[in-house]
Design goal:
heterodimer, A: mainly alpha, ABC transporter involved in vitamin B12 uptake, BtuC, two-stranded antiparallel ribbon, 77% helix, globular, B: 321 residues, alpha/beta, Rossmann fold, 2 domains, 4-stranded parallel sheet
Chain lengths: 333, 321
């Protein structure tokens, strides 16, 4: 019994232990290898870390729900780019320019609505056709990306608005705007997953879809709502990020789906569904951004960073599997 | 100038050695660079190698070499990190000429001089940067006109030659500047050469080939072709070869590519403009150092891109891209 609890603790706490390890490693290695005299764990640097986690982190919260459901969404990167194009392009529309700065909330609304609609399309197809979400969203990934390229060809879509930039760069109580959004989204999704019927149903469906159907859960509409949520969050991530940068390349957001899934899996969510935690996902994205930032801090190049993240992902999955096997054997005895 | 107390601990053995040999702690500039996408083509890969080599050869600089991997978000994070690390100057090869402007403004506010390398940022960001280091495309266009004209003079057809032009992608500053330089300079050196038509080839070899096929049908006498880069120039050459008219035509390009260099070696392609990633990288580092040392650096700080023709190509290595 005790070993089982220990394994449970290990599994739950693994991601946070890993983050602590990273912090210790980069702090010490930074002393010798970094060019700067500033410590890695400088408060300013840690606040930046949270801010830089936001673009992937906001999407990862949605991905957690979808994966707990036993589904997956590969189209988030394309949705992210399309929402960004709509956000920035709409600011240049003639009637929007007449509105002055009031165009900003309207442009946000357009982008967020577009994200929700794109998610709804995915959800509707999954619901009505019964085709696996992996295939549906793989198609959507290509299709939505095609729309991005149709919009403006190979050219970037740009609209630099300093009011918007100043808002996005602001630090309320020392915390960046993007971080507030990340924390807000994390809190709301945590509440949905842990305190509402919808959240409990998400776990039930992922655990055993047939049993969930028999229990009277309307699986189709439930999944569709989750796809709307992740589409909306992908757009929100774009809104938060592009309010600050003001220009989107047509290939922006490529591979984001894989980074997000990596973060969610690092956080312990099962690819098969039925299990996963919002707080652990938060740890997962933090761990990835910490690795990227830390390795850059000590002067490793980008390819090394990708290699290390890949290795760690495999190690985590292996460890997770070992702990699970042990936990199951505990039950048998 | 900031004193680096940790110079002795620096990983770079070169720097560590220099600091020890110098007895007193050496003054070093900390310079960070964030590049566009190193693995994507050999120009950028060669650029990175040359930059690291140049930095290691210089005892007065310590560098952080970063690569955005083509990802704007990652590049912006890298710029923020470099500000956080309090580098003395930073060099940026923008992934997107507009998206980095707010991040560049942050560096400007933190009083860190920013040097843009290779391709410039949008004008809205000019107030926040110290200098742009890169190729001068107007001069490249002018030099191409001179190469073309000199060749016509040698052939004795400078008073009646007729030429066509294939430009880069419409809207691209590089394409516009090269074409402007060429069209301005040509009448000055060879007033009797007639530029009959100019059409975009979009930096694409196949597109350029189609454009040239149309030119060959339309005009019975073509003596020269100016292409906005060698990739398009070779496309035009292929079209002319297919029509058995390549022998009579002088091909001049820009940004000497390996395919252009090889065509020159075969005697099919006349000349181009040599743009070396090594020069590009060294110029960027030197510009950053000059800015830090308070020297008068021009806002647009161009590195030299010389003429290359069949006559002098032995002096240049074959381009790696």
């Amino acid at each position: 019994m005790q070993a089982g609890t220990l394994a449970n603790y290990l599994r739950r706490g693994a991601i946070w232990g890993f983050i602590v390890l990273e912090l210790i490693f980069f702090s010490i290695a930074g002393e010798y290898l970094a060019i700067t005299d500033k410590a890695f764990m400088d408060a300013g640097n840690m606040l930046l870390l949270l801010k830089q986690t936001a673009p992937l982190g906001i999407i990862a919260m949605g991905m957690t729900i979808v994966m707990v459901n036993g589904n997956i969404d590969l189209s988030v990167g394309a949705t992210f780019a399309l929402a960004a194009v709509i956000l920035l392009d709409s600011l240049s529309w003639p009637f929007m320019e007449e509105l002055g700065d009031w165009a900003i909330p309207l442009a946000w609304t357009f982008a967020l609505a577009a994200g929700g609609v794109l998610g709804a399309i995915n959800g509707l197809i999954v619901w009505k056709t019964g085709v696996d979400a992996f295939i549906v969203t793989l198609g959507a990934m290509l299709g939505y990306r095609g729309l991005v390229f149709m919009y403006n060809g190979e050219q970037p879509t740009s609209h630099l608005n300093w009011t918007l930039v100043d808002f996005a760069e602001a630090q309320f109580l020392g915390i960046h705007t993007a971080t507030w959004f990340l924390l807000g989204v994390t809190a709301v999704i945590w509440w949905v997953m842990n305190r509402t019927v919808h959240g409990r149903n998400a776990y039930a469906i992922g655990d055993n879809r047939e049993a969930a159907v028999n229990a009277g859960i309307r699986v189709g509409p439930h999944m569709m709502i989750n796809f709307v949520i992740i589409g909306f969050l992908a757009a929100l991530s774009a809104v938060v990020f592009y309010s600050e940068s003001g220009s989107v390349n047509p290939n922006d957001g490529e591979l984001y789906e894989l980074w997000v899934i990596t973060a969610v899996v690092l956080g312990g969510t099962k690819l098969t569904g039925g299990s996963g935690s919002i707080v652990a996902t938060f740890g997962g994205v933090l761990a990835i951004q910490l690795l990227r930032k830390g390795l850059a801090h000590i002067g490793a190049d980008t390819s090394t960073v990708n290699l290390v993240i890949g290795l760690i992902l495999i190690a985590v999955l292996f460890l997770d599997k070992q702990l699970n096997i042990r936990a199951k054997e505990e039950l048998k005895t | 100038m900031r004193l680096t107390t940790k110079a002795g601990m620096a990983v770079s053995t070169v720097l560590a050695g220099a600091a020890l040999a110098g007895a007193a702690a050496a003054d070093t500039w900390k310079i960070g660079i964030t590049q566009n996408n190193v693995g994507v083509d050999s120009y950028q890969t060669t650029y990175e190698k040359a930059f690291i080599a140049a930095a290691e050869a210089n005892d007065n600089v310590e560098t952080v070499v970063l690569d955005a991997g083509g990802d704007v978000a990652r590049q912006i994070a890298q710029i923020e990190d470099l500000i956080q690390q309090e580098v003395d100057a930073m060099i940026i090869w923008p992934t997107n000429g507009e998206a980095v402007i707010p991040a560049v403004r942050k560096a400007f506010k933190a009083e860190i001089p920013v040097i843009i390398t290779n391709s410039n940022i949008d004008e809205a960001g000019f107030d926040f940067i110290s200098s742009f280091s890169g190729p001068d495309n107007i001069t490249q266009g002018k030099r191409a006109a001179e190469i073309m004209c000199d060749r016509f003079k040698d052939l004795g057809i400078a008073d009646e030659a007729q030429i066509v032009e294939i430009t880069g992608q419409p809207g691209y500053t590089t394409a516009i500047e090269r074409s402007t330089g060429f069209q301005d300079r040509l009448p000055e050196v060879c007033p009797d050469v007639d530029l009959m038509e100019s059409q975009p080839g979009d930096w694409n070899r196949e597109k350029a080939q189609k454009v040239m096929e149309a030119f060959l049908v339309k005009y019975d006498d073509i003596d020269g072709v100016y292409a906005g880069d060698d990739n398009m120039g070779v496309g035009a050459l292929n079209a002319a070869k297919a029509a058995n008219r390549a022998e009579d035509i002088t091909f001049v390009g820009a940004t000497n590519f390996a395919v252009g260099y090889e065509a020159m070696a075969r005697g099919e392609y006349w000349g181009s403009i040599y743009q070396s990633p090594v020069d590009d990288a060294e110029a960027a580092l030197q510009t950053a150092i000059d800015v830090l040392e308070g020297e008068d650096v021009p806002f647009l700080n161009y590195f030299d891109t010389p003429k290359i023709t069949q006559e002098n190509m032995d002096e240049y290595d074959k381009p790696v891209f």
